Amino acid sequence: MPSTQLGKRMSWNEIKAVFPHRNVGLVDCVPNRYNIVSAIVKYTDKDKTYSELIRMAVNKEIVMRYTTMDEDDGIQ
Amino acid sequence: MEYNKDSFEICLAKGYLRPIIELYEIPTLIDTGAVIPVFSFTESDMKDIFNATLIKNDVEITGFGGNDKGSVYSIPDFSIGSITFSPFEVFVPEILRIKYPILLSAPVFYGTVYEFDTQSSLFKVSWGDDYPKNRSFKITKLKGELYPQVNGVLLQISDK
């Protein structure tokens, strides 16, 4: 169950595999927010609404990313 | 109006095929194939985060992905690097595009030289001293289509 992975440090590839096609709220991105090799997933759009994630990102509480941004998965 | 030759750089997010930057800490796609900027936010988020006001309801844009219904909002001040748009009008779709909360289209950078430096992961923008750093970006509906208007110049397809 993906929610058991919340709060654990994972590589970006692991995050994409565990939470595909989701917006996630990340903290402690290593080495930084523009180059995420690993991070801790604090929230996903299952726990928080899209709007809540947006507001947390604007307030610098999380780094918001869609996990499969480059895939044509039918989601805009 | 202040005219200054200027430039700025914004970090490109690494690991993506498409050019992604962050504006106001929000993932932003630079879509050079798009004409109208698209902000995928709820009405209350547009108001609370950007102090935006609704300009027009029930508008439609056409793109490679098909048609989108939505509204046009006006943001009083919006900054991209050292460029400030006052106002900055954007399309807000009814069905939010949750992958890219902000999509910036090519005309947003009208009058600039911009490049994606994928070696140093930077989005670089520059312009000469004949172009102001404080701009306006409006959306005009003409013959049923939406067109951008930058600093009062209506950008549309030439008939030649």
Task: Write up this protein.
The complex is a heterodimer of chains A (76) and B (160). With 76 residues, chain A is of the alpha+beta class. Chain A has helices spanning 12-18, 50-58, and strands spanning 9-11, 23-32, 35-44, 63-66. Chain A has a 4-stranded antiparallel β-sheet. The longest helix of chain A has 9 residues, at 50-58. Chain A starts with 8 loop residues before the first strand and ends in a 10-residue tail after the last strand. Chain B is mainly beta and 160 residues long. Chain B has one domain: Acid Proteases (Cathepsin D, subunit A, domain 1), CATH 2.40.70.10. Chain B is 5% helix and 53% strand. Chain B contains 1 helix and 14 strands, in the order ββββαββββββββββ. Chain B has one helix at 43-50; strands spanning 6-11, 20-23, 26-31, 38-39, 53-63, 66-75, 78-80, 83-93, 102-105, 113-117, 122-127, 134-142, 145-150, 153-154. In chain B, the strands form 3 sheets. In chain B, strands 5, 6, 7, 8, 12, 13 and 14 form a 7-stranded mixed β-sheet that branches. The radius of gyration of chain B is 15 Å and the shape is globular. Chain B starts with 5 loop residues before the first strand and ends in a 6-residue tail after the last strand. Classes of the chains: A alpha+beta (76), B mainly beta (160). Chain A binds chain B through residues 12, 23, 33-36, 45, 50-51, 54-55, 57-58, 60, 63-66, 69-70, 75-76, and chain B through 11-18, 20, 22, 24-27, 41-42, 44-45, 48-49, 65, 95-101, 121.
